[in-house]
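A reminder before we start the practical. When you read a complex entry, don't treat the lines as separate problems. The point of joint prediction is that each chain is placed relative to the others, so the output describes one connected object in space. Small molecules and nucleic acid strands, if listed, are placed in the same frame. In the example below there are three entries. Take a minute to note the order of the lines before looking further.
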Amino acid sequence: MSESRNSERRPDPPGEVGDAPVNTTEAPVLEAPVTPPNTPTDKKVVRIGDRIFRSLATGSGVFVVTIIAAIGLFLLIRAIPALQANEANFLLSGKWETGDPDDLAFGIVDLAWITVASSIFALVLAMPVAGGIALFLTQYAPRVLARPFGYIVDLLAAVPSVIYGLWGALVLAPVIKPVAVWLNTNLGWIPVFGDGNVPADSGSNVFTAGIVLAVMILPIITGVAREVFARTPNAQIEGALALGATKWEVVRTTVWPFGRSGFVGGSMLGLGRALGETVALTVILSYTYEGPHYSIFDAGATFASRIALGSAEFNNNLTVGAYIAAGLVLFISTFAVNALARWIESSSGKGKE
Amino acid sequence: MRTDTADIERPAKTPAFQQLSPGRKAKNHIATTLFALAFVVAVIPLLWVLFTLVRRGLSPMLNADWWTHSFYGLLPNDFGGGIYHALVGTLEQTFVCALISVPLGVSVGIFLIEYGRNSRLARTTTFMVDILSGLPSIVAGLFIYALWITTFGLDRSGFAVSLSLVLLMLPVVVRVTETMLMIVPDELREASYALGVPKWKTIVKVVLPTSLSGILTGIILGLARVMGETAPLLILVGYSRAINFNLFDGPMASLPLTVYTARKTSTEAGEYRMWGAALTLVLLIMLINLIATLLSKLFAVKTK
Amino acid sequence: MAKRLDIENLNLYYNKFHAVQDVTLQVHARSVTAFIGPSGCGKSTVLRSLNRMHEVVPGSRVEGKVLLDGENVYAPGVDPVQVRRTIGMVFQKANPFPTMSIKDNVVAGLKLAGEKDKKKLDEITERSLRGANLWEEVKDRLNKPGGGLSGGQQQRLCIARATAVQPDVLLMDEPCSALDPISTLAIEDLIAELKKDYTIVIVTHNMQQAARVSDQTAFFNLPAVGEPGQLVEIGETGKIFSNPSQKATEDYISGRFG
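Here is the predicted structure of the whole assembly.
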């Protein structure tokens, strides 16, 4: 009978009341005219050790749920008075004047631009590279090398973001300055490459930040993409090979279509990470009071780096509330992007396997 | 090979295999080159970062004082001093984070796999853990600030940092526990039940030991990641150039915070210290990664 | 040691699915009872219900009685943990605990129940391994992991583990289905020896095996797809195989279906 059991089952506790009530009632059977009274199921034996252990495990689940819900509530409670005292339009203003609690004026539109611009630029750079690496590691690299090579890419994720920030601001920015200047002079007619609110050769702009962010999210996208590409059914690959397809044709006709949506999901995860990245951007981006020119040579602050920079003025609840309001917007956007990523990934698995 | 007469009329030398058109060949080569190149592109920044760190950070570290002294009393232009105060802070904050997040996260993992199944509470918990897993670290810092400092009215401290790290660490622990418990075959649980072993003992003595290696590795790797976090520190604790062992009182240094703060001292000596602290942090993280690898080998299920 | 089992009007369910209908049979002490029948007929489910392993599956339900020397294992107040300590089980796939040595595997049931006396544990290890015809093969490597043994040795290790807690009844769920013929023979010889001390119930797909090892045979069948499995007949093994009283049994045994 084992074949009829649900393969996803988990063994139940011995003697737990749990979800598997065991009826000890007599079945009404012809040969047994005298049916004994039904025995109540709640008189089951539960060992004290089991009860304690189960309560501990369940309790920690409840605890985590409660604590997170409570924190969410606290954040809202802190943000609302600041939003009420706000003299600017929170969604449409580019101002960020929070030093004086009696005269708050803050809006997120500039923060949103810098955040989105640097993250999208990072994504544009990282996606093709990550896809290439994932294909290389799963389909091309010799088996013995695939693991150490994969480990090397994962090492990129082990470097702390403050160090990426230093490297980006002090080492990378001077080196890529000519590229930035060239793009600005020759392709400046395309709006995003136009003049920013700081000179293109300053280095402390979205251009540098995006490249550094791309490096930081590379291992995330690669990790997910490697996993989905490696799951391509062997039968499909062999089928293509048997038709005389070249390696590239195999990849194009089987591996890529199979893993595409997983790859996009992984990229969304990377985007979520990029949106919330703080310290690298705090170090790289220079702060300017001039509004953005909607170019990748803009400087300024993202949601996250604005909060980090503002930590020095966390001295009254209204000011903090303003930052918390920005934090909530960041939180909601990363949550939405991550949820989208999970949805894409989970729906990609269903149709194809 | 067929040997009937039809073969005679064919050209004397047919190629044994069909030729690949040059276009297909070229495309295949281009694709192979591009994919290999992508890997190289990823390796460049890694080597570049590591090279920069070693070149600029190694010399402060070779000084014996580096491991035993703090930055206390140093003027912006003074060379010397050590990273001891920051090491103390990082290790204490990470340790306390582990002390809270590991038992909590492992129990949540056990709850989800062994007890909760598809109950509503389990689904809610999974949802909350999902929220945490995508949480930007600066927001984790704000969370704790809203709770610990504005609501409870407590001071900024190393312990507040530990709490924010718990928020970042918890989803890692829960996920890795879940994954590792999931791959323990049900046959082992059943074998244990069939011997008359209660469920909780089965979990503690059979299921957890089987998955110990994986859980331990995942946790340590997560700790290494959390150790480099800087953003919540900016909000939750002041920087101190002196040694402070007390997590609950006063400003406290840590390696990432030292790197960040030393950058503001724009002197040669300040930069010297900054790169030294940065290399120390990366070495510490690598050391912990190495320990994780060793432990996973040590605790792996043996068959010989 | 060695008790009788009486199954009375047993009905087994997985959620709404009625898996086994109305089974009544007796298992005699110190004998081997074989359950045979086509796949999906419920014979393993019945076996698992005897030591309350059936309820480990979420959504499962039991109606009826399983009496061990007259005492219902499903009576309220009976601890399933104790039932399982009295009625041991060997599974289809050998499942030694991978983190434990051979010795620790054998005495796992005792150790986990809190037995600490080292001398006693050593004695039981040797006795159980000898009882499982495994002692000579592993006595020099008792502290090596159990996962390093061959499939047949692992299965005998599992039998040693099940007998180490000194149960009254031993349930075996297709214990040889994953083994080669030589290991199968070793297990069958072992069953013949074990029945001197234990009441044994064995589920098998292999009719020759049932004929070789059992004293009485129960034939289960599935009347139709989607209907619950039923006990068709039970009787002395010789009689079931040579002169069954039901046509379904005869058809199955002569290989006309299943």
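Discuss with your neighbour: The mean pLDDT of chain B is 89. What might explain this?
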